[in-house]
Design goal:
Blueprint lengths: L1 H23 L8 E3 L2 E5 H8 L2 E5 L4 E6 L2 E6 L4 E4 L2 E4 L5 E3 L2 E5 H12 L2 H7 L12 E6 L16 H17 L4 E4 L9 H11 L3 E8 L9 E6 L5 H11 L17 H33 L3 E7 L2 H4 L5 E8 L3 H8 L1 H24 L5 H8 L1
Parallel strand pairs: 10-11, 10-12, 12-15, 13-14
Antiparallel strand pairs: 1-2, 2-9, 3-4, 4-5, 5-6, 6-7, 8-9, 13-15
Helix pairs in contact: 5-11, 8-11
């Protein structure tokens, strides 16, 4: 009898362990419901199953699910989701059903499972980091203005559109020597719309986007270099530069939407991307500023934020570089010199390579991945 009781205890113990093990597995299949022929899973089920945190914006109808520094962002009414800083197209749009946010089941069970997989299982199943996984491989350089849009014009007659293209060509040459693929939005003096510029970067899925410009100001004494990333302008100088560069909109087709989107949903998606890329854009801006100040010895006007339309639609880190002031006769004279133009391009290249070094050394600024690798 004692042996029988002991055997039963062992069986119950093993069964309990097996049950616990199964509960630790992420399973969402049984939670799916069909809405208009599409299989959905309630967001609260996903959050609970993955042990994730979340936040909900009832005005924008935006849901953020986060775990271990990894984020997935959804907007009700759109079939696009921002996962790990990249846009992903789902099989159907996110919907509200009976007061619950519903996410397409195929996306929840595949893409989100990869993103939020428990750490121990992730370490066992992930492909080992290979050399160059986080390498900067390609960028788009945008020579601002062009064609019917001359940009700023110096008293000497130097046109910003010409200067931007010269510097961009030199910059391309320097970076290609470092095995970086470079795409120019324009190779000649032709007009390219703001939407076309950032769409070139999006279509080629490059690592980042840089728009080259030269500044102008009412104060003729203004001089130096400054680099912008996309965010709200916080001072009058930034707002003035924003107004000057966005004045190129007057050359756009009348159908161009100055808000950079055709719907409220697209505007939300653009804002999501901006938020995800802001930190890396600011880091890139800082590196380029350092390269220009250290190499050229120009006045450091700092890293600034402004809402430039040419950056607004970019789906990757992006910055706008102001190489100097054409309204300052001394700086304009230097910018007219071909040797100095090459030095400006090299200075920007030095900044980009500094960013590349930091990015690759830190595995794409992904501290969590480094923590996984050390375990």
């Amino acid at each position: 009898m004692r042996k029988l009781i002991f055997t039963l205890i062992i069986i119950l113990f093993i069964s309990g362990c097996a049950t616990t093990s199964r509960r630790q597995e992420v399973s969402l299949g049984g939670a799916a419901v069909s809405v208009n022929g599409v299989s959905y899973i309630p967001a609260n089920t996903i959050i609970g199953s993955y042990g994730a945190d979340h936040s909900w914006d009832p005005v924008a109808r935006k849901l953020v699910i986060e775990k271990g520094g990894k984020r997935a962002v959804f907007c009700v009414g759109t079939d696009m989701a921002l996962v790990g800083g990249k846009l992903n197209k789902m099989s159907a749009a996110v919907i509200m059903e009976s007061g619950k946010v519903m996410i397409p089941a195929s996306f929840a069970t595949c893409v989100l499972k990869e993103l939020f997989l428990p750490i121990k299982r992730y370490i066992k199943k992930k492909i080992p980091t290979h050399k160059g996984k986080y390498a900067i491989r390609s960028i788009v350089i945008d020579p601002g203005h062009g064609g019917k849009d001359p940009g700023a014009i110096a008293a000497s007659g130097l046109r910003e559109k010409d200067l931007n293209l010269i510097i961009a060509r030199h910059l391309k040459s320097y970076l290609q020597k470092e095995s970086i693929k470079v795409i120019l939005t324009r190779e000649t003096d032709k007009f390219i719309s703001l939407r076309q510029r950032y769409n070139i970067a999006n279509a080629n899925k490059v690592d980042f986007f840089i728009s080259i410009h030269a500044n102008a100001a009412r104060a003729k004494s203004a001089h130096g270099a400054e680099v912008y990333y996309l965010s709200d302008a916080v001072d009058d100088t930034a707002r003035a530069t924003q107004a000057i560069e966005n004045a190129a909109l007057e050359y756009e087709d009348s159908s161009f939407d100055v808000n950079g989107s055709s719907s409220g949903t697209e505007a939300i998606l653009a804002d999501m991307l901006c938020t995800e890329n802001r930190a890396e854009s600011e880091e890139l801006a800082g590196c380029i500023t350092t390269g220009m100040v250290d190499t050229l010895g120009v006045r450091n006007r700092g890293v600034k934020a402004a809402k430039f339309y040419v950056l607004k639609g970019a789906q990757m880190p992006s910055v706008l570089v102001e190489v100097g002031f054409l309204s300052n006769k001394y700086e304009a004279k230097k910018l007219r010199n071909s040797n100095y133009q090459q030095r400006v391009a090299k200075a920007i290249a030095e900044g980009i390579l500094l960013y590349k070094h930091r990015y690759e050394k830190s595995d794409g600024f992904t501290r969590m991945d480094l923590a996984y690798d050390r375990q």
